[in-house]
DNA sequence: ATAGGGTTAG
């Protein structure tokens, strides 16, 4: 009896001042005391439920809630909140509907939770009926409810165009919910989706009071739906209403300037962020990293990242993606390792960000390690990750593994289809099978990238006429770039007649295509049709088209060395020249005969030999050989395709110097080892 | 005696 009365006093004190409870532990202790004070009233039970729901303790809340016969408003509110905050959105809504069926009227501060649940469940119809409920109860003047409505219409705009999401048929005024899934979005709903932003604006206009959150919500809503100018207009309007942009505003605005590739405006925002102490904010920092990366300012991305004192998974992911997108693959991999060391768990997107780096560097062992990590982390059923794995294995030359993962996948996206078709170098039959089964058995309409991949494949396999007809029969309009792949194939396989036909197609769809003119001029030269070659060049000059100089670069001891064809300006040029001569002698002993047909200069054979001899990739290669220890793998990048002769030469060089040489040109990588190349001469 | 609680970004 005495202990009961002590408990009663204690409980009474706490229920009078529920905020004095500071920890979950204290809250749990209170429950033990409370249970001794039988009988307890519904109102004190409700207060206790609200205490638990504030700590997000779902189970004690439910335990108490279920003990009530007719729960008062506070109990309903608390339980709806607790369900929503712990991710049980459907339960939260079910509770709301039940409460209505008990004839209890909701109060304003419950709507933000319920509307949030509708957004998470992607249920626009229910959201709309709740909006109706808000209006009927005359609660649409509440600031928080208004903000939640703004958010809902903003989110539904960005959800709708995709269509096909699950909609729960669900009526607030029916009593219990029906969870029939209506798959797909009707035409009527799609039509309605176009006006969601208008609805958002209408809600905003009706709001008697707006705060920073209201503005941030509509700005983000417009920005995320591609309405960039409208978003920026609203930022100005917000300023006119005497409200200052905060970190939320900036992180919605920065992606717009990233999209516009407007580094000037982006930097202005950066300056504003620094002046207002927002630059250490994780959200701002990752938007800045993305923005700078999109503007090809990777150094600025890095400095933002380096100055960040607290980094979360998204800041790490942003900087890794920034490096990989800008071709700084080694740095991307280094950061990925640092991320793991810092015990930050990678997200699914992290893997699809980092995998292209493995694919590019053709570091199969690292790709395999990542694959292991993916399996251990349970990410292997993620379509994006699986696609990037297919691509990585295909690019690293392990077609077997690529195909195995591809076959394991339940659904295939564009990336995996492209990767698998591109990956089967030379296996045209197989690629045809995949290409055909794509539309026939999987209902995926081939896109431009698949046509391009197929055309490229056929061309590289020397099936030029087949490729020509294939491109001509495309369902989508052909582009200059797709014909260009075939034109390069014509050059490799020395089919001038077809090349002229292909070039004419390019002139039709893409008259500004520099590559086509250059290639044709080169092919005429190779066929010793000097007049035609000159005609081509005069034509280019007239049109003001200039050839992009061939350029290769190599990283040695953290410095990038760039070489242009025939360039003698490198400080070590003399030694490079000696090395080149030495290499030439060695590969000639292996049977190398210079293939000067590809050179378009009208000079004698001996001179031609030297022009080819100083192609940019060879300068870079010779420099790499003399400035790195024996056996080191050499990685070279080139802005345009490697020529046939250099390809042959580098194969032999890889044999005589016993090194792996990786050359990445603008269309693919070449992995040279022991006199062979991974492309198996299909390029 | 009575209130409070909730909304936005990468």
Automatic annotation (TrEMBL):
<dbReference type="GO" id="GO:0008270">
    <property type="term" value="F:zinc ion binding"/>
</dbReference>
<keyword id="KW-0677">Repeat</keyword>
<feature type="repeat" description="PPR">
    <location>
        <begin position="72"/>
        <end position="106"/>
    </location>
</feature>
<dbReference type="InterPro" id="IPR046960">
    <property type="entry name" value="PPR_At4g14850-like_plant"/>
</dbReference>
<feature type="repeat" description="PPR">
    <location>
        <begin position="382"/>
        <end position="416"/>
    </location>
</feature>
<dbReference type="Pfam" id="PF20431">
    <property type="entry name" value="E_motif"/>
</dbReference>
<dbReference type="Pfam" id="PF01535">
    <property type="entry name" value="PPR"/>
</dbReference>
<comment type="similarity">
    <text>Belongs to the PPR family. PCMP-H subfamily.</text>
</comment>
<feature type="repeat" description="PPR">
    <location>
        <begin position="312"/>
        <end position="346"/>
    </location>
</feature>
<dbReference type="GO" id="GO:0009451">
    <property type="term" value="P:RNA modification"/>
</dbReference>
<protein>
    <recommendedName>
        <fullName>DYW domain-containing protein</fullName>
    </recommendedName>
</protein>
<dbReference type="InterPro" id="IPR046848">
    <property type="entry name" value="E_motif"/>
</dbReference>
<feature type="repeat" description="PPR">
    <location>
        <begin position="211"/>
        <end position="245"/>
    </location>
</feature>
<dbReference type="GO" id="GO:0003723">
    <property type="term" value="F:RNA binding"/>
</dbReference>
<dbReference type="InterPro" id="IPR032867">
    <property type="entry name" value="DYW_dom"/>
</dbReference>
<dbReference type="Pfam" id="PF13041">
    <property type="entry name" value="PPR_2"/>
</dbReference>
<feature type="domain" description="DYW">
    <location>
        <begin position="591"/>
        <end position="683"/>
    </location>
</feature>
<dbReference type="InterPro" id="IPR002885">
    <property type="entry name" value="PPR_rpt"/>
</dbReference>
<dbReference type="Pfam" id="PF20430">
    <property type="entry name" value="Eplus_motif"/>
</dbReference>
<dbReference type="InterPro" id="IPR046849">
    <property type="entry name" value="E2_motif"/>
</dbReference>
<dbReference type="Pfam" id="PF14432">
    <property type="entry name" value="DYW_deaminase"/>
</dbReference>
<dbReference type="InterPro" id="IPR011990">
    <property type="entry name" value="TPR-like_helical_dom_sf"/>
</dbReference>
């Amino acid at each position: 009896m005495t202990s009961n009365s002590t408990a009663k006093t204690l409980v009474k004190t706490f229920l009078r001042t529920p905020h004095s409870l500071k920890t979950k532990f204290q809250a749990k202790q209170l429950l033990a005391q409370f249970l001794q004070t039988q009988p307890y009233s519904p109102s004190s039970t409700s207060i206790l439920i609200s205490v638990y729901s504030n700590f997000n303790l779902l189970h004690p809340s439910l335990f108490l809630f279920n003990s009530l016969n007719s729960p008062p408003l506070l109990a309903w509110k608390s339980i709806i909140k607790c369900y929503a905050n712990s991710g049980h959105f459907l339960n939260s809504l079910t509770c709301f509907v039940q409460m209505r069926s008990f004839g209890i009227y909701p109060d304003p501060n419950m709507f933000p939770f319920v509307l949030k649940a509708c957004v998470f469940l992607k249920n626009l119809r229910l959201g709309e009926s709740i909006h109706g409920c808000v209006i009927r109860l005359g609660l649409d003047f509440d600031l928080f409810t208004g903000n939640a409505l703004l958010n809902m219409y903003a989110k539904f705009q960005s959800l709708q165009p995709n269509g096909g999401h699950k909609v729960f048929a669900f009526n607030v005024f029916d009593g219990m919910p029906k969870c029939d899934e209506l798959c797909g979005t009707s035409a009527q709903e799609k039509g309605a989706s176009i006006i969601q932003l208008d609805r958002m604006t209408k809600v905003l206009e009706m709001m008697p009071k707006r705060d920073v959150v209201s503005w941030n919500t509509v700005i983000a809503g417009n920005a995320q739906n591609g309405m960039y100018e409208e978003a920026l207009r609203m930022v100005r309007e917000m300023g006119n209403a005497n409200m200052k942009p905060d970190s939320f505003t900036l992180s919605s605005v920065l992606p717009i300037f990233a999209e516009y590739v407007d580094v000037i405006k982006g930097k202005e925002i950066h300056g504003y962020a620094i002046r207002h102490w927002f630059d250490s904010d994780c959200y701002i920092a990752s938007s800045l990293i993305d923005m700078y990366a999109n503007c090809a300012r990777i150094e600025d991305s890095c400095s933002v990242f380096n100055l960040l004192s607290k980094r979360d998974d998204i800041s790490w992911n942003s900087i890794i993606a920034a490096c990989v997108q800008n071709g700084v693959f080694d740095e991307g991999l280094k950061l990925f390792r640092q991320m793991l060391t810092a015990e930050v768990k990678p997200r699914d997107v992290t893997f699809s960000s980092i995998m292209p780096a493995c694919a590019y560097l053709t570091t199969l062992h690292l790709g395999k390690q990542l694959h292991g990590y993916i399996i251990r982390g349970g990410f292997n059923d993620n379509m994006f990750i699986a696609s990037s794995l297919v691509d990585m294995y295909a690019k690293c030359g392990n077609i077997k593994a690529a195909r195995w993962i591809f076959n394991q996948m339940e659904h295939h996206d564009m990336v995996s289809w492209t990767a698998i078709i591109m990956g089967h170098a030379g296996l045209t039959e197989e690629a045809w099978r995949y290409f055909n089964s794509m539309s026939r058995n999987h209902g995926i309409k081939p896109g431009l990238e698949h046509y391009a991949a197929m055309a490229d494949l056929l061309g590289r396999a020397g099936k030029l006429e087949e490729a020509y007809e294939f491109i001509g029969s495309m369902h989508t309009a052909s582009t200059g770039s797709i014909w260009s792949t075939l034109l390069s194939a014509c050059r490799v396989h020395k089919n001038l007649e077809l090349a002229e036909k292909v070039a004419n197609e390019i002139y039709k769809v893409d008259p500004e295509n520099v590559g086509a003119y250059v290639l044709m001029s080169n092919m005429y030269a190779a066929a010793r049709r000097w007049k035609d070659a000159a005609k081509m060049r005069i034509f280019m000059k007239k049109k003001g088209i200039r050839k992009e100089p061939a350029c290769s670069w190599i990283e040695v001891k953290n410095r990038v060395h760039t070489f242009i064809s025939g360039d003698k300006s490198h400080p070590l040029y003399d030694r490079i020249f000696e090395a080149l001569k030495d290499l030439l002698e060695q590969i000639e002993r292996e049977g190398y005969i210079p293939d000067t047909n590809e050179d378009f200069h009208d000079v004698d054979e001996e001179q031609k030999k030297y022009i080819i001899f100083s192609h940019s990739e060879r300068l870079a290669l010779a420099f790499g050989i003399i400035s790195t220890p024996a056996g080191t793998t050499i990685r070279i990048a080139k802005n345009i395709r490697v020529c046939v002769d250099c390809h042959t030469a580098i194969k032999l060089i890889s044999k005589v110097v016993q090194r792996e040489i990786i050359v990445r040109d603008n269309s693919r990588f070449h992995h040279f080892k022991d006199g062979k190349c991974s492309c198996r001469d299909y390029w």
